[in-house]
Amino acid sequence: DTGVSQDPRHKITKRGQNVTFRCDPISEHNRLYWYRQTLGQGPEFLTYFQNEAQLEKSRLLSDRFSAERPKGSFSTLEIQRTEQGDSAMYLCASSFLQGAIDTQYFGPGTRLTVL
Amino acid sequence: QQQVKQSPQSLIVQKGGIPIINCAYENTAFDYFPWYQQFPGKGPALLIAIRPDVSEKKEGRFTISFNKSAKQFSLHIMDSQPGDSATYFCAASGGAGANSKLTFGKGITLSVRP
Asked: Tell me, what's the pLDDT at A1?
């Protein structure tokens, strides 16, 4: 399977704990995006990388959230001191920038439940 | 302020029918408009996308119609099947430059009855 992969698929944690998610993009895709999706809503943009550079962060990304893409390949999203409001599906997407087209392909997501 | 609005909120059609899902946007800087399909517990899957230089694009049973002056676009699913039952999201972005992040609508739930 050469699609976007995410790990873990499900995470249950207690409020106040730290969690880390991993995303492996499609091979050779130079852009990687993180989105968050709550029940009954469309995905909302969090942040994105071009190669290893983090180019944009949403206002949704509070100080408790940090994302990295150290070698321009996989990426991690860490949430510190989780809150119940962090419960959501965290989606990763990757793309290969080609001219004016930036087609994003999504992974299966990580479902986070904060108790 | 919701920049991308979808209608209707839900849709039920019979097998073989042609569901039409509408989307309206506000930001005139948007110039890339994809549609995604999502099944429960899965990530969104790209169906078809269009840019404003064309008014219609067809791929298989899926067609996008685009009206730049009205800032609206719609998805038509020909010969719908029960397997098309899913949530459909329209999205928009400023293209491949600095504004490539996708802004999504809230999604509509489509049910295709056998």
From this structure: 54
Q: Which residue is associated with the tokens 């899913």?
A: B86
Q: Which residues in chain B (87-106) have CB-CB distances under 8 A to chain A?
A: 89, 91, 93, 95-96, 98, 100-106
Is B83 in a helix, a strand, or coil?
helix
Name which of A105, A59, A87 is nearest B102 in CA terms: A105
DSSP A58-97: -TTS-TTEEEE-TTSS-EEEEESS--GGG-EEEEEEEE--
Q: For residue B11, give every residue at least 6 positions away whose Cβ sits within 8 Å of its Cβ, in sequence order, or none.
A: B19, B21, B108, B109, B110, B111
Q: Is the dihedral of CA B97, B98, B101, B105 positive or negative?
A: negative
* Residue B1 pLDDT: 58
Asked if the model's pLDDT at residue B96 lies above 70, the reply is no
For residue A42, the chain B residue with the least C-alpha distance is: B106
What average pLDDT does this structure show over B92-107? 85
Residue-wise pLDDT for A41-73, tens only, equals 999 999 999 999 999 999 888 899 999 999 889
B84 phi and psi, to 5 degrees?
-85, -5
Output the CA–CA distances (angstroms, integers) from residue A7 to A22, B49, B55, in the order listed: 5, 28, 40
